Amino acid sequence: MANLIEQELQKFSNPEEVMIFFSAHGVPVSYVEDAGDPYRDQMQDCIRLIMQELKARGTFNEHTLAYQSRVGPIQWLKPYTDEVLVDLGKKGVKSLLAVPVSFVSEHIETLEEIDMEYKELALESGIENWGRVPALGLSSTFISDLADAVIEALPSVQAITTTEVTSEGAEAGTFCKEFRAGA
Fold first, then answer.
1. Would you tell me which CATH number, out of the four given (3.40.50.720, 3.40.50.1400, 3.40.50.300, 3.90.1150.10), belongs to the domain 1-132?
2. For labelling alongside 88, which of 7, 22, 170, 174 has CA 20 to 30 A away?
3. Phi, psi angle pair for 24, to nearest 5°
């Protein structure tokens, strides 16, 4: 995520003036407070680690976190993305880089909500320069980190060997063998 943020910051004329705006998917407050869901703490830890990495690389931009995609009459995690965007505009923030921190792929909440609805609201609220970090998707670093996490989480799992042939004509066991070997 730090790599993607750095790349997108360079697209602004004054990258050091850009506020990094983390937008995470919201959950009902009752999930966190009543059911003990660690999501809010995990989002805060994730952002702290991302910002720590950026600072280690020499990027010291201000940042904030808000939650999007709430529905229904119940209380959701705050602050809400739409309200924060309006407040940032009122406070004179001119350049904003939206980071879909809890989304690993592009979908309606990134492509419609962030890219269209929130961008329009931000511009109407006085923010002049808008950018967005792409979701992690298929970035090679993310895929490699994900593979490492799987291997670390399952140290005793052995690859299953089979001679089944897939529709592409490759043996089904080949991927597991190559995956474990680091191919």
1. 3.40.50.1400
2. 7
3. -110, 155
- What pLDDT is attached to residue 158? 54
Distance CA 27, CA 75 (A): 9
Check: pTM over 0.90? Answer yes or no: no
In this predicted model, what pLDDT tens digit does every residue of 143-157 receive, in sequence order? 999 899 888 888 665
One-letter amino acid at 131 equals G
Cβ neighbours for 100, distance < 8 A, ≥ 6 positions apart: 23, 109, 110, 114, 132, 133, 135
User: Under 8 Å CB-to-CB from 75, ≥6 apart: which residues?
Assistant: 28, 29, 30
Using 50, 70 and 90 to split pLDDT, how confident is the model at 66?
very high
The one-letter amino acid code at 51 reads M
